[in-house]
Task: structure prediction
Amino acid sequence: MQQNREMEDHDLSENLRVLQAIRQIVTNNLIPSDGRLPTERNLAAEFGAGRRSVRRALDQLEAEGLVWRKQGKGTFVGQPPDPTEELAARIVSEVDPLTAMEARLCIEPALADLCARRASAEDVAKLRQLAERTHQAGEAEATELWDGALHRAIARIAGNRVMLTAFTLIDEVRMGEEWQRERHRARTPKARAAYDDQHNRIIDAIDARNGAAAADAMREHLNTLFENLKHSLEKEGR
Result:
């Protein structure tokens, strides 16, 4: 019986150690630009632990909304994409970045409003974590990864499946190469500071369960993005 207790204590200790280690990888952006974590086998070898402990840690992080899994592809940081890639791929060549921004301005303020009405304290904590990771991200690809995860989380918390599908289509379009390129050009240090502040104000309004204020804050944020993107394109003569 004593031996069983010692084994249980060892398992709990290992589970906690592995969870903390993987959480450190996630929170410190110690991942490739595609957001994919190492395999369970590689994580187990790296931490000198059993794969069961790794799997339990990933289960916990997935429940917290920090990682997601895709069968046959692996485990990724952030929120999972919605299955609308095929439709997005068909129309992406017909949609320029400013058109995508117009669509975002139509739908995301309403999603922020609904999010404020339905978010739990746990949801708000997740949003703050994603906003902080966006702020801390160094490279452009990492910034896009976390910024997208934050906006997707708000859309999911809003809880309207039809609006989420519309948002996801827009989100897939904005992940195109042209969009990424233009966003990177428009994301100056001054603009990044403004975006961080606007993210925090959106989340503060959600935390206060003030739907109108959340919608207004999101609209201001997207208008700033729109104007910066438009200015960047005008500088290129487009």
